[in-house]
């Protein structure tokens, strides 16, 4: 390993107790007797094509006085355009640095309540993204904010999972995410002083939102009155009403870009994505349905997008389209599926997302983000995505063993406990022992 080369390392659970006490960020070690494997293409933590895998023969000892110190920090920062390029690909877990604009949290002491926190971060070029943290990470972040004497301005977040949802970029924390504030890292410190220089040392006038974000129940009349009188903000409400009609003249689906989810523009011979600047984009069919819902107080126009409709009917728009497809007919011009027509006349309890756009003169519809089933209770604020896709499957690929002895290794019984067997051809071509010891720092 060359000096300052960053590689990810894996320790399986059955060996973790042996090495856990030695793992400390910023400490330098010598390491020998390990396996080298090809890095899995999903959820990569570094740019290296290889990874280190600890085995029963691995020696891992701290260096008290290193001869040539290695950098204590190693980040892979990405800007907004790069994050969009990585979104939904599940190939990398990059890092970000930016200015904290706002924080929404539903962390509380209520037993059984799932903790979630959402922070708005401004990156370079004034682009903003939303980072969501869940469970223990949300609680730790919330507690740190409460314990601080002042609000932090800069955040560094590592190993985040970028997603494109409804045409917008959202970031989810993973099990490997670490969060640092202000001057806790060198890049954070540099960014902090850049902000100070920009503002001439004047602190931000608006404190971060640390209060609990509650989801209130409103009538449709109260919802309409709220957007007519309140200050622009992002907030969720729950409403109940009867579907009085479907606006099928505007269709029930659209052809979206497979990369960014924006509606594609038809040309003479292809589909073009304006956002991605791709004149030959790959299209996927997605739901978009406008419906009029009324209660005893008023009537409003609401829109359901792909995620809500897919979950409600347990059927993707593309699958519905295949059942109704007519040769030579554009998907958007297909007849409305019967299960959508059956929504008319039904009473729904649903969660509504009110955004800054709802407070403008161009506002015509409210976006439904969730339809509750009868057994479901009123939800906490809707945070984008979940934490079900993180770096749990980082291990993988063919093994290239590097050992100090000839005991059973990657192809022996121990491998059965660790994961899939190694590529036999790779094993045979690279089974050479070595006593080389490498120097490494845990970052």
UniProtKB/TrEMBL annotation:
Q: Which residues form the Replication factor A C-terminal domain?
A: 239-362
Q: Does Nucleotide-binding show up as a keyword for this record?
A: no
Source species, domain of life:
Eukaryota
Region named Disordered: 380-443
Write out the entry's keywords from A to Z. DNA-binding, Metal-binding, Zinc, Zinc-finger
Comp. bias intervals (Basic and acidic residues): 402-418
Identify its protein family. Belongs to the replication factor A protein 1 family.
Name of the featured protein: Replication factor A C-terminal domain-containing protein
The species is Brassica rapa subsp. trilocularis
